[in-house]
Design brief:
It contains eleven helices and 14 strands. The protein has 305 residues and is of the alpha/beta class. The strands form three sheets. It has a six-stranded mixed β-sheet with strand order 2-1-3-13-4-14, with helices on both faces. The chain has a six-stranded mixed β-sheet with strand order 8-9-7-10-6-11, with helices on both faces. Strands 5-12 form a two-stranded antiparallel ribbon. The protein is elongated.
């Protein structure tokens, strides 16, 4: 027994030293974050861009990179506030929420497949009596998900601005009160178009990019639909950094990302990063549209959710 105790005591300092000693200086690690419900697939999207960026950040002390997934926007906000994530890419609505909740800063716009901005499109069947947002009272509309900018945040804000009251429906079979617009989440763009086409709901909302995408708007449906309203344009996605990221690191990150579109070595990494074509500056007009979206989100949170 005494011999065993001696062995354990001899091992203890070594174990304590391993726990206490940092594996790597945190200031030398650049952490890219992502809200994900499919970490493996998203890791494969993020890793090539991180591998491209990190070697080009050596001049500001970056030696390695890491990817950290969050299960939802609340967890990502916590990571940013605690300094566990340095930068993240999000859609406009979620970017505005992270700015407000986690003191994140919008650094650049992410252009995907050649589009840097988009908007929401409200559509109905061609034989529908609905001609405008005012006609949706007492009717139902299908959004995509509670975190979709183009298929929830923007259209919900537009309905409130049009003076409509909104009610969450239990299913497509449920009906709203005559003075309210009933809404529910269809989860996918194809479900939205199918529900409208089959008359399960009165209206649907897609981004203008999805409206033009035959995989999400089947060509066989298009002739049966009619657009009744469109929202303002907002940036399609943004790169955000944590609020207390060292200025020289943020400046170099911005420089590397801005130059990536003209660097042949970045082509594959950009393509795999959710079809990114380039990163562009946030203009004054973009900032105004994000501020309007933020005010709309505040109303949605207070009056709808």
């Amino acid at each position: 027994m005494a011999g065993l105790l001696c062995i354990l005591l001899a091992l203890l300092p070594s174990a304590r030293a391993q726990v206490a000693a940092p594996v790597e200086d945190d200031a030398s690690v650049l952490v890219l974050g992502r809200v994900s419900d499919d970490p493996k697939a998203h890791y494969d999207q993020l890793k090539p861009l991180l591998d491209y960026v990190v070697p080009r950040m050596a001049s500001v002390g970056i030696r390695s990179g890491r990817i950290l997934m969050a299960r939802d926007l609340q967890q990502m906000g916590s990571y940013l506030r605690r300094g566990r994530v340095d930068w993240v890419t999000e859609t406009s609505g979620n970017a505005v929420l992270l700015e407000r909740r986690a003191n994140a800063r919008s650094l650049l716009i992410t252009e995907r497949d050649g589009a840097s901005r988009y908007h929401s499109v409200f559509f109905v069947r061609r034989d529908s009596p609905v001609r405008s947002l005012a006609d949706l009272a007492g009717r139902s509309v299908a959004f995509q998900s509670p975190y979709s900018t183009s298929a929830y945040y923007l259209p919900a804000s537009a309905l409130l601005e049009a003076g409509q009251r909104m009610e969450l429906l239990l299913s497509p079979m449920d009906k709203p009160s005559p003075q309210a617009v009933g809404y529910l989440f269809a989860r996918t763009e194809l479900n939205i178009t199918t529900w409208v086409h089959k008359r399960l709901v009165d209206a649907g909302v897609l981004s203008n990019l999805d409206w033009a995408n035959p995989q999400r708007m089947p060509p066989a449906f298009v002739a049966d639909f009619r657009v009744v309203a469109e929202s303002q344009d907002v940036p399609r996605a943004l790169v955000l950094t944590r609020g207390d990221l060292e200025p020289k690191v943020e400046a170099r990150l911005r420089e590397v990302l801005m130059e990536a579109s003209i660097d042949p070595d970045a082509g594959e990494a950009l393509r795999r990063f959710i079809g990114t074509s380039r990163f562009v500056d946030v203009s004054a007009e973009d900032r105004q549209s994000l501020d309007r979206l933020g005010r709309g989100l505040t109303r949605v949170r207070l009056e709808v959710e």
